[in-house]
Amino acid sequence: MHFPRNFTKITALFLVLVTAVLCLSGCSDKYTVNTSFAMGSVLTAKIFTDEEEKSAELFTRLNSAVQLAENALSNTKEDAEIYNLNKDKYIYGSDYLRNVLMDTVMLCNILNRKVDITIGKVTSLWGFNTETPSLPSEEEIEKHIKNVSVEKILIGTENAKVTIEDDVELDMGAVGKGAACDAVYDELAYSYTPYIITLGGTVAAYMEGPDKGRWTVGIRDPFGTENDLFGTLSLSPLTPKNAVFVSTSGSYEKSFTEDGKTYHHILDTKTGYPVESELVSVTVVAHSGLNADALSTACFAEGLNENSLTWLSSFFAEAVFIFSDKTYYATDGLKDSLKITADGFTLNAYTNEN
User: Is the pTM higher than 0.70?
Assistant: First the structure.
């Protein structure tokens, strides 16, 4: 069995480039950088102020917001709410957890279950978040995939009780980092201080950026090294939040090779196996981290078609699709913002009439 380089644990600075998928540029010299580890990824935050005390306070609050999300949504931390929900099948959840779950269940249904957080028992079979992922048996996958359905989550409205059925477990991996970015926004929105954070494959930026009011966010080249860019997006903050959220889902992350075949971590919620797609990555720009995360995963699973474009339009989101033949497609709202910097890419022939 062969593991690609980006599957191993490496230094934090290098991990930012490997796991973030999105690389940042265009920053001014009046910012402070803080790097930590959260939710299984490196968290890199830049706060744009020359006031040291204010910067220190905002970093503390930012990290606390991410910790709030991790303590609610992790399925590996023994004191986390989702971990204990999976173990005991019910908990009395925090307001934060219940709100995220309600929003996520709604998204799963809108996105035709291309994202389904009740797939936890199947994802654990693959072990993508461990040092030793492997191909499960067909019998194991069939045993659990048939049970996957967000209808098996009951979120109390008159009390705080959250219940799941015995045959499912929750895995918030498809939305967790986006939810954490939303928690940071909620915590820092009234600081009126620009910031940009990278957590895994999700980026969140608040207020006007340092590049003539815009933020420059790079999209990783799926065919290059960890440091290579496909191109950059020049993004303005979106109303009404005065913020922008970007998320990338790619088949080159969290993958392993067994018996000559490579398996990636984005699972088909109907089959329990990695999604078979001509796509290698989808980058979504949206009004919230949760929406960006869910849409990037769902659009990757669905492919570029009328359904995925309708989902994007419904959430006033935009996307860049990159294909295995080195073609790309950008939705209308990003065509003027996208600058291709890598060689060898051409425009995909897809039209809405396809």
Answer: yes
